[in-house]
Amino acid sequence: MVSLMITNTSAHKACHPDDVKGLIDFKAGIHSDTSGRLSKWIGQDCCNWPGISCNSTIGRVVEINLPGYYVSGDDESPTFVSSTMSGTISPSISLLTSLKVLHLNKLVGLTGQIPQSIGVLKNLKQLILSTNQISGAIPECIFTNLTSLRILKLENNHLTGEIPESIGNLQALEKLSLSNNSLTGKIPLSITKLKSISSILLDQNQLVGEIQLPLNPGQWPSIQHLSLANNRLTGVIPTSIGYLTTLSTFSVSYNQLTGPIPSSLGNIKQLQILKVDNNNLSVELSSCICGLTKLSVLHISHNKIQGPLPSCVSSFKYLLEKEVDVSFKRTAILPTGHHQL
């Protein structure tokens, strides 16, 4: 989580009128809240409302933290609560101009579109609206205006449209998750400009075209997770995959990729999960895999890849037999039990 100087002040002090107005309008847009948190949004002292945090220096709301799954109670006797909210996000959210975190994850019942007015929240660092029923296109103003964003998580919704080229503006972005929506079009080339990115999850959409990877080493110096599975991607796995030496997860299963698994993959010594199954990849499995000694998952079945599995994998101490999915006869002997990492 982003470090913020925030407080839930105990003194009875009225909040900034714009913050109160924005929050009251947000509450009005929600017609069902099983947690009862919004029912306690009473009066003008919004910094003491459940889910709201303020910056004590400027006296403005900086966090709306209302996830569907949260911890209630004190440290000695915490209670894990699962709740839902139904309704829409009010355009008046734009009145909270100091907002840094908007966390409405797993509320399940949020519908409608992401309001265009969200583009004025230029201090926003975390936008988390995952696991709801939000529909429509992602407002382009998110990519053009919210250049302080570090976390953008919109997975498990009903979003449509394309990912715009303007995503390259988000130079501070560390985590991008748009999985399990209905996004179409190509992966924008500008995504390779995200120099702070550590996680890109675009799986389970309807994306087409080629995989976009940096053409030069060092462009994604912190990348750890890249998941593009369950789309309609074509072309080859670029040889520049070998530049992503910090990668631990690479998943492109269930696409229409062709060509070989590039030998440069062997440069990714930190790789733990490799999933390229259910494509049209061909030729022999390269011995480059022998350098991937940290592999714990290897899925390469339902391709045109010829065996055998290199004998070197027998020495991979984290790779269990049940996590190896190949279409040819295995000659390497793999462990069947559990290992502790």
What does this structure look like?
There is one protein chain. The chain is mostly beta strands and 341 residues long. The chain is 5% helix and 23% strand. The chain has two helices and 24 strands. The strands form six sheets. A twelve-stranded mixed β-sheet has the order 2-3-7-9-11-13-14-16-18-20-22-24, with no helix packed on it. It has a three-stranded mixed β-sheet with strand order 1-6-8. The chain has a three-stranded parallel β-sheet with strand order 19-21-23, with no helix packed on it. β4 (69-72) and β5 form a beta hairpin. It is elongated, with a radius of gyration of 23 Å. It starts with 16 loop residues before the first helix and ends in a 16-residue tail after the last strand. The model is unreliable at 1-12 and 337-341 (pLDDT under 50). It holds the Pfam family LRRNT_2.
Short description:
By secondary structure, this protein is mainly β. Helix content is 5%, strand content 23%. The chain has two helices and 24 strands.
The number of distinct β-strands equals: 24
Mean pLDDT: 91
Number of alpha- plus pi-helical segments: 2
Radius of gyration: 23 Å
Give the N-to-C terminal Cα separation: 26 Å
User: Percentage of helical residues?
Assistant: under 10%
Strands ordered across the widest β-sheet:
2-3-7-9-11-13-14-16-18-20-22-24
Largest sheet: 12 strands, mixed
Low-confidence stretches: 1-12, 337-341
**Helix-strand string:** HEEEEEEEEEEHEEEEEEEEEEEEEE
* Class derived from helix and strand content: mainly beta
The amount of beta strand, in percent, is 15-25%
Shape: elongated
Family: Belongs to the RLP family.
Domain Leucine-rich repeat-containing N-terminal plant-type: 16-55
Protein name: Leucine-rich repeat-containing N-terminal plant-type domain-containing protein
Membrane topology: Single-pass type I membrane protein
